[in-house]
């Protein structure tokens, strides 16, 4: 079964070392090329404005999925800023277990192997969401199993 299990956003202020953690639930990932949206509502973030000194630090998740390279995973901030966490990695291997994405990690996720366990640098710069926006609001993890879309495209083309 393809299943997204958990998403955690960590927002931190570098001045005090204090961090806030927001946890969301997951659900099934459809195998039809259609995006699946998992929303975490962040509220009470203080200060509310996220920037270079107070902002998104990491996204952690668990995904049970065969053939990891089918996965396309993006983070969408409340203002619509979108960051590609990873896409097309891992080949035919399985799962993302205790996988965290952090711009300060030592290893790029694109060079790692499945099961992806540990902390990795995402494909895009996560700090791009720390753009002076209000961090309170709906943060969305958009997960697409691209296999269905690829299969449909091949059949029709």
Alpha-beta content class: mainly beta
Topology pattern, helix = H, strand = E: EEEEEEEEEH
Mean pLDDT: 83
Q: Helix amount, in percent?
A: under 10%
Proportion of strand residues: over 45%
What would you call the shape?
Answer: globular
Termini separation:
29 Å
User: What's the story with the biggest beta sheet?
Assistant: 5 strands, mixed
Side-by-side strand order of the widest sheet: 2-1-4-7-8
What is the alpha-carbon Rg in Å?
Answer: 16 Å
Number of continuous helical runs: 1
Q: Count of DSSP E strands?
A: 9
Which spans have pLDDT < 50 for at least 5 consecutive residues?
150-157
Summary of the model, kept short:
By secondary structure, the chain is mainly beta. The chain is built from 1 helix and 9 strands.
Structure description:
With 157 residues, the chain is mainly beta. The chain is built from one helix and nine strands; from the N terminus they run βββββββββα. The protein has one helix at residues 147-156; strands at 3-13, 19-28, 36-42, 54-64, 71-76, 82-87, 96-101, 116-120, 137-145. A hairpin with a 5-residue loop joins β5 (71-76) and β6 (82-87). The longest helix is centred in the last third of the chain and has 10 residues, at 147-156. The protein is globular and about 45 Å long.
